[in-house]
# Entry
Amino acid sequence: METIEGLILKQINYKESSKILYLYTKNGLISVLAHGSNKLKSPYLNLVRVFSHVKLSVSGKDLKTLRDGEVINRYMELTTDIEKYTYTLHLLETIYYFSSHEHDHEKLFLFLIKIFNKIKNTEDYIPYINMVELKLLYLLGVQPVLDKCVVCQEKKGLNFSVKDGGLCCKEHIKTIKYSNETINLLRLLYYYNIDKDNKIEYDKLSLISLRKLLDEYYEFHLNYQSRSRKLLRELLGY
# Structure
């Protein structure tokens, strides 16, 4: 018997009455088979919900089988608002997509739990979603350069270039696309210490601009866009 603590990112039906759960843990993605969990009288009903932070007792090697467990935090509050629900699905989908990449899974898992608690307890949650996406770029090895020109190391008169992977000086960037406020917000969230730093200050236009920057950056450098992000465009208008 083995104990696994993780965040349920996804579930799929398996045969007539079972589910396969995909948990993100400090060791990366782990699949767990929950026999009979689709039945109304299943003892596992509360253990198989997406968005839940759980601790499971499992057996087996390749596809582990659920034997027992407990819910540490359900985060069901995230499902009551359609925009928050879709934004959080975007985050789960992104973590799932890159979960096979070799990086510091333990650091990301512990950070995700802190972020989920922030999302749960605040209405102003979108900057925390963006924060995960920015810090994930670092773990994936495609982090933007934010302290000097990517080309010549100049530190003044910089603006952001998605193609070049960071800030560029006036000589090495053709089009000024992002405002200083957007770049300052990007820096703030990238370097933000969730355990120490204060409330995040920003204006809505900068947040919208940062959202578009992140979309472009993920598409250009990682060829990635979540399905949930497409739904968000319809809900948010950007």
In short: The chain is about 35% helix and 20% strand.
